[in-house]
C-alpha cells in the first residue's frame, strides 16, 4: 500500500489587507482545501493569480508569507500535524523534510557567494552531512540535472550562469538535504520556452531519480501535465477539480477546467497579404546610446493595413527594441521606416502630431501604463482632448462609447486604475489607444501578464476591434499560442536578426530552420507525454547528425 | 468621510491654535509688542500670564507677536523653497542630460557650504529685511527639496504612463504637472512638514545670532536671545519659545502624517 507523505485537511488561510488610506480588513484566501500526496508522487496545483496556489504550497511547510495566517485545518507530514509543532518543530522540519524552489532564481540567490556554498548551506547547517559528503552529493545532483561541468560549476557565482541553469542549481539546493517533499513554485514561469523545456525535463528526471514527493505550482496547465501524477485546479481559494493528471486533461468535469484545457483555441483566418503596407521597416539597425553592440541588425518587415504582424522571439532577441525604434523612442542608427506611404522621422521630436496619433502603443504591464492618480475618464479622455479637441459632454459621450466598445459598460468612467482588475486595466489601455483613431497599434506583450482565460478575452477583443476599425497590429510576444491565434504574418527574431519572416501559413509550416524548429517544438502542448516525445525526437535527430 | 484619527485631531487643534494666534495677534495680544509694562523678569501673574522679559515687556504678548513673525517667515520660505525646488527638480528629471547635470551640480555646490554659514555671509552684506530673509532661506532650502523632488521624479519619469504621454506628444508642462506631480505629492507633503519646522528653527537661529529679525520686532529666536541671561538666575523666559517651537513641530508633523495617509490612497480616498 502506498505510503501517505502529505495530508492536508480542511485548510483555511486568512490574511489582513491594509489598503492605503482605508481601514484594514480580514480576507479569507483559502476556504477549506484538502488533498493528499503519496511518497514519490507529484501533485500539480494550478490556478490563475489569486487562486491561492502559492499560499497552499507554502502552508505545507507551515509558512504564511507576509501576514498570512493559517487559521484552520490540519497539515500532516510524515504522520505529524506540523501546524502543532511550534517554532522548534518547524525548525527541525524546514530545510530537512520540506524544501522550496522559488520562481525567480535570480532573486533567490545571494550574488556575493559562490553557488556551492549556497547549495549545501542548509545541509551543513542541519548537520546532516559533512562538507565533503555534501559537496559530493551536490555534484551528483548537478550531473543529474544536466548542468554543464558539474564538478566546477559550484565555484561560479550566480551572475556567471544562465537563468535556466540557475533554476536547476536551485533545484539541486532543494534536493541536497534529501527532503521528503519539495515545493516547486512556478519554477519555469520566468524562463523562455526553449529554456523551460530543458529545466522541466531536468526537474522531472531529478524527482523521478531521487524519489521525492513534490508539489508543483504553476498557472500553465500544459506544463503541469508533463510532470504531475495528480492535478488540483484551484480558483478563488477553493478546489474546483481534483483528480489524476489524465482525467483532468482528457476528461475534465467542471466548466472552469474545461475552459482552461481548451484555452487559446481561437481560430483566425489569415488575410490577404498583397496590399500596400501601412508600416514598412527597411534595413533598420539600432544600438543603445554609449554601446557598440547592434541590438537590431538589418531588420526588414512590412505590415499591411488592418492586419497583424507578430514579432516572436525569446527575451533579448530585440523584439521590444524594434517597437522602441518604430515609436521613435530609440532612433535607428541606419535604415528607414515608412508609415502610410510617408517617411517617418527616426526621432520622436521630429514627428508631427498626426504621426503620433496614428501610431499608438499598448504595454505589457497595464498597472504602470496608466497614471494611478487619473480616473478612467481622464485616461481615455486625454487623447480625445489632445488630438481632437473634444471637451465636456462631447468628450464624456465618446469615452462612454469607447468603454462600450471594450465591453466594460457604464460605471467605470469615474474609477481609478487601482479599482480595476488586471483584465479591465488592459482593456482601458486598449480604449486609450483606440481613442486616437490610430492606423497602427503596437502591442508589446499585452497578454503576458494576464491569466490564460483573461488573456483569451483580450485577444478576442483585439480581433473584433481590428474587424471594426481596420487598425493594424504589430504584436510583440514570446508566446507562440498567441501568435497562432492572432497573426496574419510572423517575423521570428533571434539575436537581433529576423530569422524567418512571411505569412503565418508559411512561417508555421515545414521545412523549418533550426531555431524556428526549436522554438516551435518547445511550446508545451496540452497532452500527456508531450515532453518525452519532444525529447526523444530531439535525441534521435541529434544522433542522426 | 471617515472619522479623524486622534493624532491628527491633536495636531490640527495645536497647529490651528498657533496659526490663529499668529493671524489674530493685534486683537488677542494683551499688550503692545514693544510696550514696557512692568519690571524686568517679573514672574507669571494674573496680569502677565507668562511674566515679563529682560526689560519689562509682557512675555505673553511678545510670544504672540513673535509667533506671527516666525510663522509668517517660515511659511513663506517653505512655500518658496517647495515651489522652486520641486519644479526645478521635476524639470531636471524629465529633461535629463545636460540640463539635469547643470542643475544638479549647481545644487551640489550650494549644498557643499553649510546653509547657516552661507546665510550668515549673505545677510551680513545685504540689508536684513523680512523679504530678504524669506528669499535667502527659501533659496537655501530649495536645494534639499530639489534633491528629493528629482529623486522621486526620476523614478516616476521612467514609468510606462509617462512614456505613453510622451508618445502622445504631450508638452513638458503636462508631464510635470499632470503625470508626475500627483504621484510625487505624498513624499513632498511629508517633507514639507519637516521642512517647515527646519525653517522655524533656521529663522530662530538667525535671530538668536542677531542676523534675523531685528529688534524691536519680536520673534521666537529673538526672545531666546534677549532672555538668555535669565537662565543663570533660574528665570524660564528663554525656554518658553523653545517649548512653543517643539509643540508646533510635533503638531505640524501630525497633520502632515494624516495628509500623507489620505493622499496615498490610490482609490481617490474612497473606501474599497
UniProtKB/TrEMBL annotation, chain A:
Q: Cross-referenced SMART domains, in alphabetical order?
A: AAA
Which cellular component appears as one GO term in the record?
Answer: plasma membrane
Pfam families named among the record's database cross-references: ABC_tran (PF00005), oligo_HPY (PF08352)
State the InterPro entries in the record: AAA+_ATPase (IPR003593), ABC_Ni/Peptide_Import (IPR050388), ABC_transporter-like_ATP-bd (IPR003439), ABC_transporter-like_CS (IPR017871), Oligopep_ABC_C (IPR013563), P-loop_NTPase (IPR027417)
Alphabetic keyword roster: ATP-binding, Cell inner membrane, Cell membrane, Membrane, Nucleotide-binding, Translocase, Transport
The residue ranges of the ABC transporter domain are 8-261, 279-520
The organism's superkingdom is given as Bacteria
For biological process, the GO terms are: peptide transport
Primary site of residence: membrane
CDD domains (UniProt xref): ABC_NikE_OppD_transporters
- Please verify whether the record's keywords include Secreted: no
What does the record give under GO molecular function? Answer: ATP binding; ATP hydrolysis activity
Q: Where found?
A: Cell inner membrane
Q: Is the keyword ATP-binding assigned to this protein?
A: yes
Q: What membrane topology is annotated for this entry?
A: Peripheral membrane protein
Protein family (similarity comment): Belongs to the ABC transporter superfamily.
What protein name does the entry list?
ABC transporter ATP-binding protein
* Species annotation: Gemmobacter lutimaris
Organism placement in taxonomy: Bacteria, Pseudomonadati, Pseudomonadota, Alphaproteobacteria, Rhodobacterales
UniProtKB/TrEMBL annotation, chain B:
UniProt-listed SUPFAM superfamilies: MetI-like
Q: Does the keyword Ligase apply?
A: no
So what family is this one in? Belongs to the binding-protein-dependent transport system permease family.
Q: Mind telling me what this protein is named?
A: ABC transporter permease
State the signal peptide span: none
Which spans are transmembrane here?
Answer: 6-29, 70-93, 113-140, 194-213, 233-260
UniProt lineage: Bacteria, Pseudomonadati, Pseudomonadota, Alphaproteobacteria, Rhodobacterales
Source superkingdom:
Bacteria
State a GO cellular component annotated for this protein: plasma membrane
The UniProt entry lists membrane topology as:
Multi-pass membrane protein
Q: Which residues form the ABC transmembrane type-1 domain?
A: 67-256
Alphabetically sorted, this entry's keywords are: Cell membrane, Membrane, Transmembrane, Transmembrane helix, Transport
Q: Please list the GO biological process terms of this entry.
A: transmembrane transport
Output the InterPro entries linked to this UniProt entry.
Answer: BP-dependent_transpt_permease (IPR050366), MetI-like (IPR000515), MetI-like_sf (IPR035906)
> Sorted alphabetically, which Gene3D superfamilies does this protein's record hold?
MetI-like
Q: Where does it reside? A: Cell membrane
Name the species this protein comes from: Gemmobacter lutimaris
Amino acid at each position: 500500500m502506498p505510503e501517505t507523505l502529505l495530508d492536508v485537511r480542511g485548510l483555511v488561510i486568512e490574511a489582513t489587507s491594509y489598503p492605503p488610506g482605508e481601514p484594514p480588513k480580514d480576507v479569507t484566501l483559502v476556504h477549506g482545501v484538502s488533498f493528499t500526496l503519496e511518497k514519490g508522487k507529484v501533485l500539480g496545483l494550478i490556478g490563475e493569480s489569486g487562486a491561492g496556489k502559492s499560499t497552499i504550497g507554502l502552508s505545507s511547510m507551515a509558512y504564511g508569507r507576509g501576514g498570512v495566517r493559517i487559521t484552520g485545518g490540519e497539515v500532516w507530514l510524515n504522520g505529524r500535524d506540523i501546524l502543532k509543532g511550534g517554532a522548534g518543530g518547524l525548525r527541525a522540519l524546514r530545510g530537512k523534510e520540506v524544501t522550496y524552489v522559488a520562481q525567480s532564481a535570480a532573486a533567490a540567490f545571494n550574488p556575493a557567494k559562490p553557488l556551492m556554498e549556497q547549495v549545501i548551506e542548509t545541509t551543513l547547517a542541519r548537520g546532516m552531512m559533512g562538507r565533503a559528503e555534501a559537496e559530493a552529493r551536490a555534484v551528483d545532483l548537478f550531473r543529474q540535472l544536466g548542468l554543464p561541468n558539474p564538478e566546477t560549476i559550484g565555484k561560479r557565482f550566480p551572475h556567471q550562469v544562465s537563468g535556466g541553469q540557475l533554476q536547476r542549481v536551485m533545484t539541486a539546493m532543494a534536493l541536497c538535504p534529501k527532503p521528503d517533499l519539495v515545493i516547486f513554485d512556478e519554477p519555469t514561469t520566468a524562463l523562455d520556452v526553449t529554456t523551460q523545456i530543458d529545466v522541466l525535463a531536468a526537474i522531472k528526471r531529478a524527482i523521478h531519480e531521487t524519489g521525492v514527493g513534490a508539489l508543483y505550482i504553476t498557472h500553465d496547465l500544459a506544463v503541469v501535465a508533463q510532470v504531475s501524477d495528480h492535478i488540483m485546479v484551484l480558483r478563488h481559494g477553493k478546489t474546483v477539480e481534483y483528480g489524476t493528471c489524465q482525467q483532468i486533461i482528457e476528461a475534465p468535469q467542471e466548466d472552469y477546467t474545461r475552459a482552461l484545457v481548451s484555452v487559446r483555441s481561437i481560430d483566425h483566418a489569415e488575410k490577404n497579404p498583397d496590399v500596400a503596407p501601412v508600416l514598412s521597416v527597411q534595413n533598420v539597425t539600432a544600438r543603445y546610446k554609449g554601446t557598440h553592440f547592434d541590438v537590431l541588425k538589418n531588420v526588414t518587415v512590412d505590415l499591411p493595413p488592418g492586419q497583424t504582424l507578430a514579432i516572436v522571439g525569446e527575451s533579448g532577441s530585440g523584439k521590444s527594441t524594434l517597437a522602441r525604434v518604430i515609436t521613435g523612442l530609440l532612433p535607428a542608427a541606419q535604415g528607414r521606416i515608412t508609415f502610410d506611404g510617408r517617411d517617418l522621422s527616426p526621432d520622436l521630436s521630429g514627428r508631427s502630431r498626426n504621426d503620433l496619433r496614428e501610431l499608438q502603443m499598448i504595454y505589457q504591464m497595464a498597472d504602470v501604463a496608466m497614471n494611478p492618480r487619473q480616473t478612467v475618464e481622464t485616461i481615455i479622455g486625454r487623447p480625445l482632448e489632445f488630438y481632437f479637441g473634444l471637451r465636456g459632454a462631447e468628450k464624456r459621450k465618446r469615452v462612454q462609447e469607447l468603454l462600450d466598445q471594450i465591453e466594460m459598460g457604464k460605471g467605470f468612467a469615474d474609477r481609478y486604475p487601482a479599482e480595476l482588475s488586471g483584465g479591465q486595466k488592459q482593456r482601458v489601455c486598449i480604449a486609450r489607444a483606440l481613442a486616437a483613431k490610430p492606423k497602427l497599434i503596437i502591442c508589446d506583450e499585452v497578454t503576458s501578464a494576464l491569466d490564460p482565460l483573461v488573456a483569451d478575452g483580450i485577444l478576442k477583443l483585439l480581433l473584433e476591434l481590428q474587424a471594426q476599425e481596420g487598425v493594424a497590429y504589430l504584436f510583440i510576444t514570446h508566446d507562440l499560442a498567441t501568435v497562432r491565434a492572432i497573426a496574419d504574418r510572423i517575423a521570428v527574431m533571434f539575436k537581433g536578426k529576423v530569422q524567418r519572416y512571411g505569412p503565418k501559413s508559411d512561417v508555421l509550416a515545414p521545412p523549418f530552420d533550426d531555431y524556428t524548429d526549436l522554438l516551435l517544438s518547445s511550446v508545451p502542448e496540452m497532452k500527456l507525454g508531450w515532453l518525452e516525445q519532444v525529447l526523444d525526437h530531439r535525441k534521435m535527430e541529434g544522433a542522426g547528425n | 468621510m471617515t472619522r479623524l484619527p486622534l493624532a491628527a485631531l491633536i495636531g490640527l487643534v495645536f497647529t490651528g491654535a498657533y496659526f490663529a494666534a499668529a493671524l489674530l495677534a493685534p486683537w488677542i495680544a494683551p499688550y503692545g509688542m514693544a510696550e514696557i509694562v512692568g519690571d524686568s523678569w517679573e514672574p507669571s501673574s494674573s496680569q502677565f500670564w507668562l511674566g515679563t522679559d529682560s526689560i519689562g515687556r509682557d512675555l505673553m504678548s511678545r510670544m504672540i507677536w513673535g509667533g506671527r513673525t516666525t510663522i509668517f517667515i517660515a511659511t513663506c520660505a517653505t512655500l518658496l523653497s517647495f515651489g522652486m525646488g520641486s519644479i526645478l527638480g521635476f524639470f531636471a528629471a524629465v529633461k535629463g542630460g545636460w540640463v539635469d547635470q547643470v542643475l544638479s551640480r549647481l545644487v551640489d555646490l550650494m549644498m557643499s557650504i553649510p546653509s547657516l554659514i552661507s546665510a550668515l555671509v549673505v545677510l551680513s552684506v545685504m540689508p536684513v529685511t523680512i523679504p530678504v530673509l524669506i528669499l535667502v532661506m527659501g533659496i537655501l532650502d530649495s536645494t534639499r527639496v530639489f534633491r528629493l523632488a528629482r529623486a522621486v521624479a526620476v523614478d516616476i519619469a521612467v514609468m510606462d504612463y509617462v512614456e505613453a504621454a510622451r508618445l502622445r506628444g504631450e508638452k513638458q508642462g503636462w508631464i510635470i504637472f499632470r503625470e508626475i506631480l500627483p504621484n510625487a505629492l505624498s513624499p513632498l507633503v511629508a517633507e514639507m512638514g519637516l521642512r517647515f519646522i527646519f525653517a522655524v528653527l533656521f529663522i530662530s537661529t538667525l535671530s538668536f545670532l542677531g542676523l534675523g529679525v531685528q529688534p524691536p520686532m519680536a520673534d521666537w529666536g529673538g526672545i531666546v536671545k534677549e532672555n538668555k541671561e535669565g537662565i543663570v538666575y533660574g528665570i524660564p523666559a528663554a525656554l518658553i519659545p523653545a517649548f512653543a517651537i517643539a509643540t508646533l513641530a510635533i503638531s505640524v508633523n501630525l497633520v502632515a502624517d494624516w495628509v500623507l495617509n489620505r493622499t496615498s490612497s490610490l482609490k481617490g480616498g474612497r473606501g474599497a
